[in-house]
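Quiz preparation item.
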């Protein structure tokens, strides 16, 4: 996720008769310094956040031990149904245990959870279908930059604000939310940082260690009761080794996760929109390995196409349709529209503008895959996710 890459109370989902439930544990009260709202939280200027690199501040995870960033300070959910893409989405329930998605195969509300910040609140989780915990990485963070592990060893992954990864996953599952772990992020290396082939970033140490990376990520899923892995690769695809790595990571994870004795796990990707034009290497990887990808999450920010500008949205429509009708053979439920609500993004998404875009996308494809957003610390008790949840549940529940 690049970050360079008022509050709405929880709305009872009466249209579907769904009680999504709340997490049972209290939000963390640790010392993360995420800002509070200073004006209208729906405004792009409602808070200021120092950003480092292009994915927000560096995660607290290291390749050896979790550290504190001084600059920033079997599923327990309801029964599942499996769709053809491998998404085992929770069916709506009314037993108070959390409803998961309003619609099993589409219209997701996916939140990226920055695990070096305060834990998400029950009011936030009540609106989400999926949470993607960011990030698993293969570096040690220091105030002067990251130190890449040359064997691409993935370090311990914390949950949030003192919670373990397993504890955070349990909280999210209790709220009916599926939980993925994202591998990558800006500090692993990004195409915006230099010239491909003339720089060495953490990803470069991974391309010859794919089996070990797959094994480590699969172990994290199994050990922490996660629902899958997201690949956040925003780096070079200028040569065959890098392209082969992304493809092999995708297919390797699919095979390894399918071997686990549990419900089918998810494998997702969250690329920059600028890397996903028809004919681009990333587009071709998705097209060639679509059967291994549960759903794709293009970042429709920082890539030059603005969904809040008519011309930008028109360009995005062509881009989105190419992905749906190409790699996914018309199945729009496997393409999830990405927004960023962190100050410093271009554009910064606001409400109700973002839900208006979602209405437009639903006009293109009524079975669209929903939305994701980066990232939860700027969401202030669900002001951003709530309107999506209400729109999708009222219009696509089938009830």
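Solution:
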């Amino acid at each position: 996720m690049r970050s360079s890459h008022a509050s709405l109370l929880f709305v009872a989902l009466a249209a579907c008769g769904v009680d999504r439930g709340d997490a049972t544990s209290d939000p963390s009260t640790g010392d993360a310094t995420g800002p509070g709202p200073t004006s209208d939280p729906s405004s792009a200027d409602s808070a200021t956040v120092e950003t480092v690199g292009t994915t927000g501040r560096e995660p607290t995870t290291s390749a050896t031990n979790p550290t504190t960033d001084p600059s920033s300070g079997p599923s327990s959910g309801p029964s599942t149904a499996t769709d053809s893409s491998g998404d085992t989405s929770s069916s709506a329930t009314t037993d108070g245990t959390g409803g998961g998605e309003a619609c099993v195969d589409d219209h997701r509300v996916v939140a990226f959870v920055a695990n070096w910040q305060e834990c998400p609140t029950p009011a936030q989780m009540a609106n989400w279908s999926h949470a993607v915990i960011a990030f698993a990485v293969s570096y040690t963070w220091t105030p002067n930059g990251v130190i890449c592990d040359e064997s691409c060893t993935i370090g311990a992954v914390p949950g949030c604000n003192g919670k373990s990864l397993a504890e955070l996953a349990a909280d999210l599952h209790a709220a009916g939310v599926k939980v993925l772990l994202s591998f990558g992020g800006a500090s692993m290396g990004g195409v915006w940082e230099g010239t491909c082939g003339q720089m060495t970033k953490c990803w470069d140490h991974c391309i010859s260690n794919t089996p070990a990376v797959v094994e480590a990520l699969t172990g994290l899923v199994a050990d922490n009761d996660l629902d899958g892995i997201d690949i956040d690769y925003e780096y070079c695809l200028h040569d065959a080794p890098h392209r082969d790595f992304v493809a092999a990571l995708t297919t390797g994870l699919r095979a390894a996760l399918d071997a686990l004795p549990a419900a089918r796990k998810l494998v997702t990707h969250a690329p920059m929109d600028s890397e996903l034009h028809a004919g681009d290497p990333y587009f071709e990887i998705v097209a060639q390995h679509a059967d291994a990808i549960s759903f794709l999450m293009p970042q429709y920010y920082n890539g030059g196409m603005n969904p809040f500008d008519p011309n930008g949205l028109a360009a995005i429509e062509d881009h989105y349709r190419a992905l749906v009708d190409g790699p996914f053979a018309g199945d729009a439920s496997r393409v999830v529209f990405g927004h960023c609500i962190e100050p410093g993004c271009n554009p910064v998404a606001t409400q109700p503008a973002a839900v208006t875009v979602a209405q437009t996308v639903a006009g293109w494809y009524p079975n669209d895959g929903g939305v994701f957003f980066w990232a939860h610390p700027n969401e202030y008790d669900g002001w951003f996710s709530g309107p999506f949840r209400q729109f999708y549940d009222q219009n696509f529940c089938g009830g």
